[in-house]
Design brief:
11 strands; 369 residues; seven-stranded mixed β-sheet; 52% helix; alpha/beta
């Protein structure tokens, strides 16, 4: 017998017991009134007595229903992934330890909206990796593919991507080994963009003309989190100015969203002259997380976290949170699946393979909120 059936039986049993007690109390009450007043009891007194007994009966019945419903809710708080969350039956979903995931989700549900916060990557996590077999652009790629740069610059950027992306996803290399190459890649790419003298007021246009797409279900994801005022921390190694334009044009840049990324620095004429702050790349998010401890301190009561990422580097995005009670890590594996799946399943609680939706995250939010 599943938990739902047990809950229903508990509710019925509770209601039955209360009904039985209520019936006894009602009968005893009327009998006592008759005994006290004898045959001389007036009809109006009997009516009053019945009305009082009826009110008592109503209270008991209401209490019985409330108890039954509460028992049902408590028993359904910790859902079984197989029985109650069909989104987890998709072939794209891979979970190494289902029981542990159920326990984490149960903790998130019990904590509710008041304890929840979201920490997420952007490129290829909230945005799509591909659509109809064609690769979708990252924030950097939106500029790389735009008319704002020369063909010569585009070729150089493509050469850099072909060289360094292979290193980024190489399963044979450790994060420590990849780290200096990522710094080289980002610094060289940013230097080329600065040489192009990019105009800030053209960014809205190139985002509209690009093939960037957010994952299926993004409206429900962002809107539900906004409705319940759940803090959303987008931690991206992309270009913050482009990222903000993407979610603005999608209509989901709500007040509960904070973006930390590589933001451009423009001169008085709106021409790119450099980048602000320290470089954020895919494998130094631990350092960036620690630099944002002030943000996380303001959310000291938000001790439950849903983390979404698409790389091993994203696993450290919550390192700035001091008081973690429950954390659920959801990882998107978009490339080199055969080589990386085992490693992802060892580090992420839920791995979504070539999944272009937010369906799993939305199903969890539905239970929590």
């Amino acid at each position: 017998m599943d938990r739902t059936a047990v809950a229903k039986m508990g509710a019925v049993a509770s209601a039955s017991v209360c009904a039985l007690v209520g019936g006894v109390v009602l009968a005893q009450y009327i009998f006592t009134m008759k005994k006290k007043t004898g045959r001389k009891t007036k009809i109006i007194e009997m009516v009053r007595a019945c009305m009082q007994a009826l009110r008592l009966w109503t209270l008991l019945a209401t209490y019985a229903v409330a108890v039954g419903q509460n028992q049902g809710q408590k028993n359904q708080e910790c859902p079984k992934l197989n029985a109650q969350m069909p989104e987890f039956q998709k072939k794209t979903v891979h979970i190494k330890d289902p029981e542990r995931v159920e326990e984490i989700i149960c903790g998130l549900i019990k904590g509710g909206a008041a304890k929840l916060q979201i920490i997420t990557d952007f490129d290829m996590t909230l945005s799509r990796f591909s659509y109809n077999g064609k690769r979708c652009p990252t924030c950097h790629n939106i500029i790389d593919n735009s008319k704002l740069i020369t063909e010569e610059c585009r070729k150089k950027l493509l050469q850099l991507k072909e060289t360094y992306y292979a290193i980024e996803i190489d399963p044979a290399l450790t994060i420590e080994e990849k780290y200096p190459y990522m710094v080289e890649w980002y610094n060289k790419s940013h230097a080329l963009l600065i040489e192009q003298g990019l105009q800030k007021d053209k960014f809205a246009e190139i985002v509209r003309e690009s093939d960037v797409m957010l994952k299926e279900g993004y409206e429900n994801f962002f809107d539900k989190l906004s409705e319940h005022n759940i803090p959303v921390f987008i931690f991206s190694a992309g270009i913050g100015d482009i990222l903000e334009e993407v979610i603005h044009q999608a209509g989901v840049y709500h007040s509960n969203v904070k973006v930390v990324s590589n933001f451009m620095d423009f001169d008085e004429n709106g021409i790119l002259k450099g980048f602000k702050g320290e470089l954020i790349h895919v494998y130094n998010k631990h350092d960036g997380a620690l630099k944002n401890t002030e943000y996380f301190k303001q959310l000291k009561d938000n001790s439950n976290i849903i983390l979404l990422g698409d790389s091993q580097g994203d696993l450290s995005m919550a390192d700035g949170v001091a008081n973690v009670e429950h954390i659920l890590k959801i990882g998107y594996l978009n490339d080199k699946v055969d080589e990386l799946l085992e490693k992802y399943m060892d580090s992420y609680d839920i791995v979504l393979v070539k999944d272009e939706s937010l369906e799993v995250a939305n199903s969890i939010l539905q239970k929590i909120l």
